[in-house]
Amino acid sequence: MSSFYALIIGASSTIAKAAIRKFEENSNCIGVFAVSRSLYVPSESTKTTYLECDNTESGISEVCQILAPLAGRITKVLICNGILHDESIMPERKLEEIRASQLEAVFHANSVVPMLWLSQLLPILQGDRNTQVALFSARIGSISDNKTGGWYSYRASKAALNMLIQTSSVEYARRAKNVKLISFHPGTTDTPLSKPFQRSVPKDKLFSADFVATQLLSIMEHVKMDNKAAYLDWNNQPIEW
After folding, report:
1. Which Gene3D superfamilies match (predicted)?
2. 9: closest CA among 115, 87, 104?
């Protein structure tokens, strides 16, 4: 493996932090850029540069201007942004719980923000070196796999993200042939995002963030570079769109 830079967007998430540690330990990784809405510097490694971004179009543009001198050298990108619940949001279990405000908030975090990054990163990722971009989706975003219903806004926002990834891959294939887009399902991971829903998860199906990060980085390293989007789970198994 040749030397590279890594970019982690949504760097405050538990899995993102684990991925940052993995990249810091990788001797081929020259440096890591970690982007989050709130600036924090938990790592003592000199490899990682932390950048603050509010995920608006102008804010993303400013970060991309900082990254521009490294165009063609950033070959590992993780876009980890997303929301399942917060103080005012929980997955809807029935139609009566649908609220426009929740739909808009969840779609913005899970679909709009990742797409804004994917669109503005294009000129930075163009080059001759194989580059992988993993966007955090979920199996629940699979339309063909939907057998249980519920979780309307989260499920639909991930399905929308998958369509945006698929559509972007068509244009990336023309304009950045070196880039592979991956819609990644991490499985149920022991993070604050899954905390309220862990009770029903078998112990062997509740993964550590370190395990998921290791799996993802291995998938990115070995994925087929074919100018097509891939929808993969933590075990490198394809998911039907």
Report:
1. NAD(P)-binding Rossmann-like Domain
2. 115
**CA–CA distance, 113 with 81 (Å, rounded to integer):** 7
Contact 229, 32 (CB under 8 A): no
CA–CA distances in Å: residue 85 to residues 43, 98, 192, 197: 27, 14, 9, 11
Angle at 135 between CA 84 and CA 19, to 5 degrees: 90
Q: Could you give the percent of the chain with pLDDT greater than 70?
A: 92
Q: Which two tokens stand for residue 124?
A: 């930075």
- 87/72 Cα distance (integer angstroms): 40
pLDDT band at residue 43, thresholds of 50, 70 and 90? low
Domain boundaries, the chain: 4-233
- Interacting residues of 17 by C-beta distance below 8 A, sequence separation 6+: 11, 42, 209
DSSP state at residue 53 = -
Look-up of token digits 């994925």: 223
**Which whole-number Å values give the CA distances from 173 to 122, 158, 169, 179, 231, in the listed order?**
11, 22, 6, 8, 16
d(CA 182, CA 184): 6
- The domain 4-233 having CATH identifier 3.60.21.70: the answer here is no
Is the CB of residue 99 less than 8 Å from the CB of residue 60?
no
Amino acid at 198: Q
